[in-house]
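Structure tokens please, single chain.
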Amino acid sequence: MTFINGPRGTALDDLHQYGCSKVRFPRHDGAHLQAVLLNTAGGLTDGDELVTSVEWREHTRAVVTSQAAERIYRSRGGDARIETALTVGKEATALWLPQETILFDGARLDRSTSISLCESSRLIVIESLVFGRHAMRETVRAGSITEAWRIELDGKLVFADRLRISDDDAPLDSTLSDIACANGHAALATMIYAASDCGDYVDGVRSAIAGQRIAGGVSCLGPLLNIRLLAPSGQALREGIVTLFAALTGDTPQTLPRVWQI
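Here you go.
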């Protein structure tokens, strides 16, 4: 999927969709063109692969989100794979705001996100994980999550990260309860804010975290803010993310995609 800057502002230039992966473009009155991703299969399990590539060309502004939370179901042994590649051109504003990914007991997920930026581009990325459904009192004891990040700025690597949590040595719920891991929290997220002025937002983001039902921290890594969040449930995580989004953009929660409304 590619966005270009046309006579009437940001417009879709190219779209290729296949299999269970579909895209819809709802009508909106906001400043950003919106694209909503749908997985018509209803979820993923071992052997399934979901690949998404999005390019924001020069001077474009668009938000890409998902219709609902992605679901990763019990595996028979292999991993479900989610691969995302984002390219943001000069003076472009890109928002990658998928809803939560829910892991069920026995799920195995390998997720990777690669991003290519320009010095003058602006980007907000959110990727979150929820271990079981809190309202259903679900416990995730078996399975694994592997998550990799790679971000380049003008062709130079500026951020690389890899996370793995598995049941290799202990049940997942036991590992998540460890103070060195999630300290008993059942939901976690990574937010990346990339912009030339990202350092100006450190104090505001820290204050926003302190006022929510979440735990977390923020690091300024040159042109990036790396925000890590932990929450007791998916709902608490979402509420925290909405508040942090407002702190980064000055927007009210109502300006998020409608599918994100609490």
